[in-house]
């Protein structure tokens, strides 16, 4: 009996899965964040080891014939991280080396078994990625909260506060976002209070306000509805910059909390992908399973080596 | 012979001027930043004292019959700051108390002797203020770099980097801003390099890139031209939120480095103020003289008391 292992590791948590070559899931594992850029290579590898040992359990490690690790920050961490992953594979006694891929390649595989297509991620940040032969070949945006991430959770949350401030000082129309944002951030809905609350925490904390925009839009708030439509337009504009029609793509995968939450934004993006680019959109499922799917499809190979 | 004193104090420097009631300038003084919120009340008062002593020089301090201090962060610093200013006036032997006003009231007075009108400030940040009887009665925006300051130097600088990134990944049109921004920030004009440089310094440092946008627009760059036009529209929208026509205003004062720099943005804003709102715009001159003008016009009065 042969097995493969797939891992998805991000900034806050790591998930691993052991899968039979027939596709059946035999074990799962969880651990903390394992982004080597954010946490250091030693800590990242330690978390990967915890998740992998849990997933493999009592199955003989030498029966693992392919292992794909999707690690945020992994592909840019260079030789020292690749060496540490090699040592980890030996320490675990795996029957193969581990292949390091990007978290976006894993997310795409979590939505489709196809090798080519477009991946839209909108969580705290936002990026659009072109995937070819299972690999990320190009991306648009992903420029972070200060410079871009148009249509992301941060972007939505910031727009919510801006709409509240605009409603207070007369620049914008009245909106229920004022009461909702104030309810999250402050006791009294004043400009000074909102500003103090927003500047008093890390900028990315604004991403937590994103669900308020969806909620207000569903409740009929026109200002929130405009923000949602603008977010969809910005995400679709990033897709457009990849020119998926000329590239011959037919599939898109949606990932990230903002796009995976059911609601008007996911609907607008899905409809826009079909209407503007002829792309059929599917949500990303379990990302550790996505990594395992890459392992099953033969993407696995020697660490740092050329993937098939 | 009687005299008045005017002071403009900001985050980075403080300027004072001693003026005869005839209007003649008899002395000037300079010191470091005196924003009590940013530097603490003790440090702020120490810098104010340095600038005031220089400006008063050998003129008998008891002949100073009015003193107006425009201090950024002053009006929100409350009783402790007002008490410290009272002690300062006694220590200097002034023949009057000092009146604390906002830096925007001083900036408006630096552009006109009128008592009513609209003030547009666009420097690192941006805010539009309605002035009535020399006092700030309302403002729009001024929400800071994270939430607003639309049309400010920060806003322009950030748009410059975004335009460069968009030119690199295909979202945006080619623009000379790519070479110019890269020339300021990095050795090689790559997305990764630009992002690393922008995130590697404080967000407000992006304001230093604002002149690149003006320069590129003047050189015929269409992307830069659109950014400048958008900045002007945003500043004019903030003015519109104050509804100056209904309020009967006829005067506007432009302040801040972005609006005081000659070029297309100041021209578009000046033309827009006239066309849309019937406002005649003038640039703010010497802000310490603006404070002295307020002192001469009788705005001075007891610290913390009601101004005439």
TrEMBL record, chains A, B:
Domain of life assignment: Bacteria
Matches recorded under Gene3D superfamilies: 3.30.420.40
InterPro entries in alphabetical order: ATPase_BadF (IPR002731), ATPase_NBD (IPR043129), Euk-type_GlcNAc_Kinase (IPR052519)
Pfam families: BcrAD_BadFG (PF01869)
All residue ranges annotated as the ATPase BadF/BadG/BcrA/BcrD type domain in the record: 5-268
PANTHER family named among the record's database cross-references: N-ACETYL-D-GLUCOSAMINE KINASE
Stated name of the protein: ATPase BadF/BadG/BcrA/BcrD type domain-containing protein
Organism: Kutzneria albida DSM 43870
Lineage: Bacteria, Bacillati, Actinomycetota, Actinomycetes, Pseudonocardiales
């Amino acid at each position: 009996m042969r097995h493969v292992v797939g891992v998805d590791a991000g900034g806050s948590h790591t998930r691993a899965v052991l899968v039979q070559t027939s596709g059946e899931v035999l074990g799962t594992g969880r651990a903390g964040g394992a982004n080597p850029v954010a946490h250091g290579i030693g800590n990242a590898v330690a978390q990967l080891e915890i998740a992998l040992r849990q997933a493999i359990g009592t199955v003989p490690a030498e029966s693992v014939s392919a292992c794909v690790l999707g690690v945020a920050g992994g592909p840019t961490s260079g030789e020292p991280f690749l060496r540490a992953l090699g040592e980890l594979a030996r320490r675990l006694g795996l029957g193969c080396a581990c292949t390091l891929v990007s978290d976006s390649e894993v997310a795409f595989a979590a939505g489709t078994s196809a090798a080519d297509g477009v991946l839209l991620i909108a969580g705290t940040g936002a990026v659009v990625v072109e995937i070819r032969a299972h690999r990320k070949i190009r991306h648009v945006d992903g420029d972070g909260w200060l410079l871009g991430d148009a249509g992301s959770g941060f972007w939505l949350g910031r727009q919510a506060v801006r709409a509240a401030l605009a409603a207070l000082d007369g620049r914008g129309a009245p909106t229920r976002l004022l009461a909702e944002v104030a309810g999250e951030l402050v006791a009294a809905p004043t400009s000074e209070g909102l500003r103090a609350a927003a500047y008093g925490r890390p900028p990315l904390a604004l991403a937590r306000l994103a669900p308020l925009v969806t909620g207000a839009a569903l409740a009929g708030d026109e200002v929130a509805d405009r923000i949602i439509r603008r977010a969809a337009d910005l995400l679709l504009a990033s897709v457009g910059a990849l020119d998926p029609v000329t590239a011959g793509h037919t599939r898109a995968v949606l990932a990230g909390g903002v796009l995976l939450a059911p609601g008007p934004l996911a609907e607008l993006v899905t409809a826009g992908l079909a209407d503007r680019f002829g792309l059929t959109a599917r949500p990303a499922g379990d990302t550790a399973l996505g990594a395992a799917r890459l392992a099953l499809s033969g993407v696995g190979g020697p660490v740092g080596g050329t993937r098939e």
